[in-house]
Amino acid sequence: MPRPRSAAVALVKEKLIARLQQGGHPPGQRFFSNRALAEHFGLSYQTAHRLNAELEREGWLQRRPAAGTYVAGTLRSLRGVELVFHARARREGSFGARLLDGLRRELDAGSIPVRMVWAGETAPDPDWLPVVWEVPDLAVAAARERRFSILLNDRPPPGIAASYIDSVSTDDYSGGVVAGELLHAVAPARRLAVLAGPRDDPRCLRRVEGFQSLVRKADIVWADGWFAEDARRVAPRLVRRGYAGVFCCNDRLAEALLAAYAAAAVARPAVVGFDDAPVAEDLHLTTVAIPWKELMLGAVDIVRRRLRGETGPAASRVYAPRPVHRTTLPLRTA
Predict the structure, then answer these.
(1) Could you tell me if 98 and 128 lie in one domain?
(2) Within this chain, do residues 165 and 296 fall inside the same structural domain, yes or no?
(3) What is the domain count for the chain?
(4) Which of 15, 84, 152, 172 holds its CA 20 to 30 A away from the CA of 188?
């Protein structure tokens, strides 16, 4: 007669079923092997084997000969990539437009089918893998349905949804530190300022925080937007105050600032931008460059994994920005 099951072993089984019910392991994902289950929960190998066998008999798991134990069910076979972008990417020369154009080229080069969707205009199709820019709620909605998605230049919110949301982004905080190092090397710290974008955008806040970690007394002037027209109303204020150096949280803000100095016929200070957008080359702007190529190739690599049906933990790839030195920042002299 078999010995009665201990309360501890019964509790382990309840925990495993709860994981499977609540989406902790999506359909088709490899499950604990007998050895891994034993090590994770402090069981004997024989007990772990019996638990996995019971879960298989009850329909929770599937045993694949010579392959292992997998969560029952199959993942949806995806047809390709669905690019879901905010309408701001329609603006020529914008960050989103550059990201969209580059990503399309990389996906085309890899012969990956692509479907374009503008946020709010067309309902997403669950047969396609969402690759999302500036519409994080869509990624969270997909995660609630236990579907994977990829966030571009953003990070998933904490919680259960994050286990289904891959992401590729740049380290905005580190970029702000880089800008601080560049300006601190050529101008007195007490005479530095930041021309910031939207004060409710986490990426802007991280850039400002990174800069302030090095230049604590820098003045912050908020444009409350990312485009040159947003900065035009506040740029004259920076001109009047006579700063020795200004960090602009993106290159479009720097464009407006440089125009304000030219209109006032005042010698411009040292200026550093962020992004390395095409306008930075036109303006000869020293800037903190987003690693565009790495960002896009990282996204394509994750796309390939998900389209192959891989169900491993969500990846979060963060790439460090780098300085690009041009003439808006004087070279440091010995």
Answers:
(1) yes
(2) yes
(3) 3
(4) 172
Tell me the CA distances in angstroms from 79 to 148, 163, 263, 308, one per residue in order: 14, 22, 53, 11
Interval 163-197: pLDDT, tens: 899 999 999 999 999 999 999 999 887 799 999 99
Residue pair 325/286 in contact (Cβ under 8 Å)? The answer is yes
- Domain span including residue 86: 81-170+292-321
For residues 55 and 16, the answer to whether their CB atoms sit within 8 Å is: yes
Side-chain half-sphere CA neighbours of 248 within 13 A: 34
How many other C-beta atoms are found inside a 10 Å radius of the C-beta of residue 198?
16
In a domain, 306, yes or no: yes
Sheet strand arrangement including 114-118: 114-118, 81-85, 129-133, 149-152, 165-170, 316-319
Report pTM: 0.75
Question: What angle is formed at CA 274 by the lines to CA 268 and CA 278, rounded to 5 degrees?
Answer: 90
Q: Are residues 184 and 268 in the same domain?
A: yes
| Segment 19-71, tens digit of pLDDT | 777 766 767 777 888 898 888 888 889 888 888 888 888 888 888 887 788 78
- Distance from the first to the final alpha carbon of the chain: 87
Residue pair 302/166 in contact by the 8 Å Cβ criterion:
yes
191: three-class secondary structure by DSSP: helix
237 neighbors 244 (Cβ within 8 angstroms) = no
Taking the C-alpha atoms of residue 215 and residue 219, their distance in angstroms, rounded to an integer, is 10
Give me the phi and psi of 268, to 5 degrees please.
-75, 155
User: Quick one: 152 and 249 in the same domain?
Assistant: no
Task: Give the three-state DSSP class for 52.
Answer: helix
Residue 332 lies in a domain: no
